[in-house]
Amino acid sequence: MLPTELSSLEKERYSRHLMLPQVGIEGQRKLKGAKVLCLGAGGLGSPALLYLAAAGIGTLGLMDDDEVALSNLQRQVLFKTSQIREGKVAAASQSLQELNPEIELIPIAERLTALNALEIVKDYDIVIDGSDNFTTRYLTNDACFFLKKPLVYGAIFQFEGQLSVFAPHLGGPCFRCLLPTPPDAGSVPSCNEAGVIGVLPGMIGTMQATEAVKLALGIGESALGRLIHYDALRMKFRELQLKPSPQCRLCGEHPEITSLITETEPTCPMDSSIESITATELRELIQQEQGLDGELIDVREEPEYLAGHISESKLMPLSRFGEEFTQLDASKKYYIHCAAGIRSMKAIEFLQTQGFTQLVNISDGYKGW
Least CB-packed of 193, 228, 296, 302 within 10 Å? Predict the structure, then answer.
């Protein structure tokens, strides 16, 4: 049953929608009755939430357990400088309520887990994946599969983005059909490590909102069964056809996954022969009277280094490591770190092949520092 008639103020607010024969009064009432959950209020969630609120989606759930940081503002357009260190859900709710007081906002300031996913997702018609990690993506996908909810997927990296709709109950594939298991640790750098052009999530997030609106209205052709790739540098789109995989562990012919599981990203195997210390232990060594008994090498990329680094460290990016390692002396000791201990292990493994033996990995990297 559609919600009550639109008020005179709502008719004025949504007047440009009402002019569209594909929307009209009945369509706008469908939007008013729709419930959309946005997982993540960051780069993708910001534009998606703004446009869904403006479109008149009657109930918007926004879920995020993070706080607003200065580095977010380059792309997360929901937030203002004055909101730094505020919880994202509270800050976003304030902005969205000011944009459209006619809608209901449900703030959820927590992280999606295998314990709460089904209980949260069940109350919504459509789910938008604005997450930035594979653990949440798999949980979201699986919860939507079990509850038969369409999932609007989006992902971004540097200058490129992806979009699709996953909904096996509508005849399409699920996320596991595209990517059965998480990629190896360190093989897909995060935006924190690789960067992202600020306008890119605006494009992909807006496309996600478009898909959600179309699904709520029941109009047009959705991205179901298609993976749309956007290259911002070349302003080009390309499209890949996706089909349900008969071998899919979740929605295939012989499913192995019958309840929610926490699919974590594989950890980088640590060679037990390599000495490893934490950033806290490194700090203690540096603060000793005699100081560090070796040289500290930072193998992150230059933008990461410029954003913040340990003053005693020397920058030698992993991307150029094969060329620059010749500056090092194989007879000396080196403490090597990256953001979280994965790229530094790769650098150490390479140096071992070059005859270096006095190598120490900082297991939790600059994040631990």
Answer: 302
